[in-house]
Specification:
This protein is an all-alpha fold. It contains 4 helices and no strands.
């Protein structure tokens, strides 16, 4: 085997290992995201939730509602329910993001991605 062939062989091995690591990383991420969905389902009691659903959509305050006691009660209800989910995920990943970051997640997948990017496993 010539030096050039050896270098080419080593490059191919590195590329193969890189592809294998990418595949493994994707599988780990998808597993984590599905675990987040399971946590959300368990804590929220909404077994029909999918990754595209907004967290506690029915509790989100609609901007068109006037500032009333009922609206404030809804806001508190949403915060308490969502906080249970956030706490469970924070304990799992040892990452405690600010509430403003979590509240901006459009759906459960985005919420999972926030914890995945910063969490420790």
């Amino acid at each position: 085997m010539t030096k050039r062939e050896l270098i080419q062989f080593m490059d191919e091995l590195v590329e193969l290992a890189s592809e294998e690591n990418k595949t493994r990383a994707i599988l780990v991420k998808e597993k984590f995201i599905n675990e987040v969905l399971d946590v959300v389902k368990k804590i929220s009691g909404h077994t029909e939730y999918g990754l595209g659903n907004r967290l506690f959509e029915e509790l989100r305050v609609r901007e068109s509602e006037p500032e009333t006691n009922a609206r404030q009660a809804e806001e508190v209800k949403f915060f308490m329910a969502a906080n249970k989910v956030f706490s469970a995920l924070s304990q799992k990943t040892q990452y405690y993001p600010p509430y403003s970051v979590l509240a901006n997640a459009e759906n459960i997948r985005e919420l999972a991605e926030i914890y995945y990017r910063r969490g420790q496993f």
